[in-house]
Amino acid sequence: MDVIVVTGAARGMGRACVDALRDTGDVLLAVDLEAPEIDGAVGVACDIADPGAVRALVGTVEGHGRFRTLVHAAGISPTMADPRRVFLVDLVGTQYLLDAFAPLVTPGAAAVCFASSAAHQLGLMAADPALDALVEDPLADGFAERAAELVPDSGLAYAWAKRGVIRAAARAAVVWGRNGGRVNSVSPGMIDTAMNAAEFEQQPMMQVMLDHTPLARLGRAEELAAVAAFLVSDSASFVSGVDLLADGGMLEGFRALMAGN
User: Fold this and answer.
1) Which among 4, 16, 50, 154 counts the fewest CB atoms within 10 Å?
2) Tens digits of per-residue pLDDT, 119-167?
3) 261 Cβ partners below 8 Å, 6+ apart?
4) What is the CATH number of the domain that holds 79?
5) Residue 211 covered by a domain
6) Does pTM surpass 0.90?
7) What is the rounded distance in angstroms from the CA atom of residue 34 to the CA atom of residue 243?
8) Rounded Cα gap, residues 7 and 69, in angstroms
9) In which band, very low, low, confident or very high, does the pLDDT at 171 lie, cut at 50, 70 and 90?
10) H helices present in 65-186, as ranges
11) How many independent structural domains does the chain possess?
């Protein structure tokens, strides 16, 4: 049997990805900090920021069949943790997963990692070559501590961590590609989830960005799940090493706002 792994599966976009993929006939492992109870899926507990837990997850996959798909939606938002923890969960954890699953890759295997439109918003700011270089190596000794020192704000830490996720997925596309596998990332904009609602309460700028989003609404979790399902499907068999921005045009709307248009 082929095995599909979805992290962050208990709620939000991760849960929507479970719903989009669980009727494929494959074994679906629904992964979260506590094992989710979801019909049609095998619940698995895993802290992705713990390399030992990630290795155990790989062992669980091998016990169920042949690895086929990884949809990595687990992560934390700025209001949920300090900058160090944001970097550990959102970026270091992503690197652990991509590295740990690489030996299981066979032709047709695919992964998609959830990044964020926040990473693209960094492009509207002045370039920071030092931070760009830093997030290229999230497994360096003392990475999270050094990153938190340089980016002491959780909101900016989230954006830089997700920029690192985009780069980690692109690098993994090269490694996985040697064995016929693909890796991409997807960068959601503002999506109607509980996590997003918490950010709205703390970040007034989010309402400003929504007001300038061309589609004039929040995205839905199932819309992002459909994007992820496409990227790991055979329909995207020649798509690898790219990030797909799915934000309803928000980035361009925000760019126009900043330009005074």
Assistant:
1) 50
2) 999 988 877 999 999 999 999 999 999 999 999 999 999 999 999 999 9
3) none
4) 3.40.50.720
5) no
6) yes
7) 29
8) 11
9) very high
10) 83-86, 93-101, 117-121, 129-135, 143-150, 154-177
11) 1
**Is position 153 within any domain?**
yes
The candidate with the shortest Cα–Cα distance to 49, out of 75, 81, 25, 12, is 75
Q: Domain residues for 18?
A: 2-199+220-248
**Which of 36-45, 155-164, 208-217 is the least confident region?**
208-217
Whether residue 113 is contained in a domain is answered as: yes
8 A C-beta contact, residue 67 and residue 104: yes
Question: What is the average pLDDT value for the chain, to the nearest integer?
Answer: 95
> With 80 as the cut, is the pLDDT of residue 261 above it?
no
Within a domain: 127:
yes
The whole-number average pLDDT for the span 64-82 is 96
Distance, CA of 177 to CA of 184 (rounded, Å): 11
Q: What is the largest CA-CA distance in the chain?
A: 56
Q: Does residue 36 sit in helix, strand or coil?
A: coil
> Where residue 256 falls among pLDDT bands split at 50, 70, 90?
confident
Half-sphere exposure of 47 (CA within 13 A, CB side): 6
Q: How many whole angstroms separate alpha carbon 248 and alpha carbon 188? A: 9
What span, in angstroms and rounded, lies between the C-alpha atoms of 51 and 99? 10
How do strand 42-45 and strand 66-72 relate by DSSP bridges? unpaired
Query: Does residue 182 register a pLDDT over 90?
Result: yes
